[in-house]
């Protein structure tokens, strides 16, 4: 089936495994900034409203890198190392998916690698 998107059409396909897997929903969002107070909680509300399990965040603008828990969410982020609130990426996991994180590698303010199982 096709999924509509602003830039065109993206195709998806079913991948069959030999063992049944639990389904989960992944999304991305360019938030422009998460450095303002309360913005992270807006993301949590949207994740709950849209039943999103894992949210990739662009333009997070949090300095340095980290792996923190806020409320029932795990927030892993990678930003600039000079302390400036510029650029930055993050991944937010709901409580169900937070325990599935196997490894975290912050590469730069634009790349964050997270391995899940």
From TrEMBL:
Which InterPro entries does the annotation name?
A: Endo/exonu/phosph_ase_sf
What is the name listed in the Swiss-Prot or TrEMBL entry for this protein? Craniofacial development protein 2
Query: What is the organism field in this record?
Result: Cacopsylla melanoneura
């Amino acid at each position: 089936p096709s999924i509509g998107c602003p830039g065109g059409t993206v195709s998806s396909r079913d991948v069959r495994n030999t063992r049944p897997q639990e389904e989960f929903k992944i999304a991305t969002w360019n938030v422009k900034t998460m450095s303002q107070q309360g913005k992270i909680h807006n993301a949590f509300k949207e994740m709950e409203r849209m039943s999103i399990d894992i949210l990739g965040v662009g333009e997070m603008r949090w300095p340095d890198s980290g792996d923190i828990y806020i409320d029932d969410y795990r927030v892993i982020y990678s930003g600039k190392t000079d302390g400036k609130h510029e650029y930055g990426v993050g991944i937010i996991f709901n409580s169900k998916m937070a325990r599935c994180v196997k490894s975290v590698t912050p590469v730069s303010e634009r790349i964050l690698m997270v391995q899940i199982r």
